[in-house]
Amino acid sequence: MEINKIIENIRIFIDHQAEKGKNITVYEKELNPEEFFKKIGINVGLDDYKEIILQDETKFELGGVNKKSFSLIYPLHILDFIKDGKITLIGPEIKNITEKSIDFGIFILIGFEKISEKDFDNLRQFNFISNGIEGFMIRTIPRRFWCRINTEVMKKKFSFEFLGNAILFLYKQKFKDSIKSMEIIFISSNPDSIENFIEITTEIREHLSKKWKDKIEEWKKRIDCDYDWECDECPYYDICEDVKEVLEEREEIEK
After folding, report:
1. Can you say whether the dihedral through the CA atoms of 182, 130, 173, 255 is positive or negative?
2. What is this structure's pTM?
3. CATH top class, domain 3-202
């Protein structure tokens, strides 16, 4: 996989979207994010907001069961390809959207120099983001991804600029010095753009999928598991994860 070519195609894709008349907005990360969050009035803190937002509490949804959506997080060690702190929005900002739910996609590039296999996997998980933003919840099921935002937070001018900065902040809080750079691309209210972007990033998805499947097969052999289903569909997933954690901790002690 030629990652430089894929990233170049993503840059070209953004330029073409602008040429087609799509709205492109570029934000830069706030130098003082905590002051920025305080000014907006929406709280952000690592694992401080583990809330469930029910349908009747939801003011706005990004993605969803009946909408086109994707989330893709790609950690890589080639830092030159990443424009650190850049947040690109393709499509309208939230304040200019009248629908209750929209098609939505998010792509995050994360640069690192050296990282453990466990942290590589953790970088690709969204749960801590969902638990770190007031009035905001992420839900995922196979091949579907969406976010719910409650009524009170929407009154405080929740925006993609805010969301991008919150994600950058929370990643830095959780992974500290492991992350050297980050870049975020949002696509809102443009199903055709989402389809095109998914096509452009097919190789990245296949690479990550193969990496994950290889790890699953290795783990299954290690614990003598002969079930045919994938781990995320397995009824014994939680138990298996507990066993895995114990084994990993024992390996660390024995090093």
Report:
1. negative
2. 0.81
3. alpha beta
